[in-house]
């Protein structure tokens, strides 16, 4: 398996993966209108202009992805996803490490997830992330914001 930069030409395959990977999150929250499930192909293609998107490729297929960008010295990590049948095998850890390495000069790494997503939170905590804020989203669920210090902070 290789982790490498994705291109806009990968968008359709990443979007299909995203919808499969985030379906369990939508079901967990009883809300299939969460942004990863409603994002359009055009929106994803446009996101390549502001985000670095990495893909994990196995046997010619994209099996995972993550994105990140720098804002005020912080790396904002988003849309970490792994094909459902490959979850729990360390691929998410590899993707997160890859995006952190891509932005090695970041002061910190920040991400968010729903507060009911205990498996995600457990993964992030195991990798050094800590909750720094909890927010109620009107008409939705609570979200936890997590952060990990970067090498530039030391």
UniProtKB/TrEMBL annotation:
Q: Name one GO molecular function term.
A: acyltransferase activity, transferring groups other than amino-acyl groups
Record InterPro entries: Acyl_CoA_acyltransferase, Bact_Acetyltransf, GNAT_dom
Q: Which UniProt keywords apply?
A: Acyltransferase, Transferase
Show the Gene3D superfamilies listed in the entry.
Answer: 3.40.630.30
Q: Does the keyword Disulfide bond apply?
A: no
Question: What's one Pfam family here?
Answer: Acetyltransf_1
Give the top-rank taxon of the lineage listed in the UniProt record for this protein. Bacteria
Protein name listed in UniProt: Acetyltransferase, GNAT family
Q: Which organism is it from?
A: Citrifermentans bemidjiense (strain ATCC BAA-1014 / DSM 16622 / JCM 12645 / Bem) (Geobacter bemidjiensis)
What does the record give as the organism's lineage?
A: Bacteria, Pseudomonadati, Thermodesulfobacteriota, Desulfuromonadia, Geobacterales
